[in-house]
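Chains adopt folds. We examine one example:
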Amino acid sequence: MSSMDDVIASPLREQWEFFLDEHRTALHDCLDGLTEEQARRSLVPSRTTLLGLVKHATFVEKVWFDEAITGRSRDEIGIPATPDESFILTAEDTVDSVRAAYRETCEASRKATAVLGLDDVVTGNRRGPLPLRWIYLHVLREFAQHCGHADILREQILA
């Protein structure tokens, strides 16, 4: 499927996964054509940078599609304890390495959810038991917000 119009009559799950993948791609692609300096450029008082947004999106994927589903701890998964820490860039973080980690994580998320139904409840999140449908909506909401951040930051960087 190539556009949102193609999923209008599709089952709800296909619609949600289409929109989620569309936002995943937008976050990945916000780094297209940028130098390492541009990707790391800080334009706001928070830790938010374009490279940091993609690194944070990797964290979000692991929180919701690993921790929440498997019950593994953040330490076991190898992710920061808090969302704020997930924006911190190390000297080893590059556009290529962060994007590769993000692509791998998104694929792992797709595999983790493929065996679940929308009404299946996962128990590994601190909020308690949650249906997959709620997780999809929550992640889509968060990624939509971050895509907006990325659009604005990218516009400022390229202006």
